[in-house]
Amino acid sequence: MDYNQFFDGALSDLREQGNYRHFADLERRTGDFPHATHRDAAGKERPVTIWCSNDYLGMGQHPKVLTAMHDALDRSGAGAGGTRNISGTTHDHVLLEGELADLHGKEAALLFTSGYVSNWAALGTLAAKIPNCVILSDALNHASMIEGMRHSRAQRVIWKHNDLNDLRAHLETLPKDQPKIIAFESVYSMDGDIAPIAEICDLAEEFGALTYLDEVHAVGMYGPRGGGVAERDGVMDRVDIIQGTLGKAFGVVGGYITGSAQMVDFVRSFASGFIFTTALPPAVAAGAAASIRHLKDSSAERMLQRARVAELRAQLDQIGIPHIPNPSHIIPVMVGDPVKCKFISDKLLNEHGVYIQPINYPTVPKGTERLRITPSPVHSAEDMERLVTALEDLWHQCELARQPMAAQ
Ligand SMILES: *Cc1c(COP(=O)(O)O)cnc(C)c1O
The Aminotransferase class I/classII large domain covers which part of the protein (predicted)? Predict the structure, then answer.
């Protein structure tokens, strides 16, 4: 077989479907984020403002985080030097897990190398090892959960996104004594809508199910201490397993689960994706712990972030640019055409110094292609003005529809 010819063929198919992924070469500058340097294919440099980062609060450049990382690097060196079982559990890992358990009001926490791995490993292990377990999975759950469930080979039931009636209907068809896990997210990344966590917990209690909640887009962002939407809603104690990332609002990298001491010890003891991989560097653990600690005490970043989101929504409304009116910090600006979506994104980058990755099928359904904008406390009024002016210009160029409210 000519392997490279095979690879080329598959990639051409992707290109033809408009699904080929181009990565922007960006260099973030500490202290100046969301501003960065973009290098194009020819190596030409130009300044850009990033408007689609998941470093939602700018914690990736927070002085407390950087100091903690520098200190740990100087104190303990670069890598952890082993799996958690074989010399890779450093004191920084222990402290971070304590910080995470406290954040979610749980008995214990377990760290993984990423949020993806934590979902894949934890959900996969629980569903595989609990005898005869069935997972009830929200239709829009993240790929990492889907892969974990698949890997478990457990029975799977997909319920309509955020639809309590559909979830109930499925629960009613299952045997009363069959072990169940309800897996869902709090803030959904692409539409920015939020799950009815309390009502899902009601159903879980009624039908004897465990609840597994992915708070990846919510940790650091919601609740008085950044514990997520479950904290904001006062229901953290009702969710059995809360999963999160250290790579988005906390600005570093890594993933985790929290829950009862027994559940965490079980996953620690049986999850291949936890056991057989080198632990995160101690400096990463120290930086994440500093970030969490800061956001437990400080709501300033969250407040400022919310104000920026409201401001951008208001400015988009003024010029009639359509966006999904959701209750979260994610602003999906709807283009509804894959070619125009990519065109606008390219023009923003190359002519306006604005970087927003286009989001096309298969990440979102066809016809709902969008620009997913995530304003942060580090975006200035000038940054926003530049963005809105550029969008207005491109909306006109692409002859895209405006919302009626622009008329007045
Ligand atoms: C990003 C993401 C993850 C994975 O987290 P990483 O730390 O980036 O691996 C898991 N779940 C959801 C919903 C996500 O958006």
Answer: 48-391
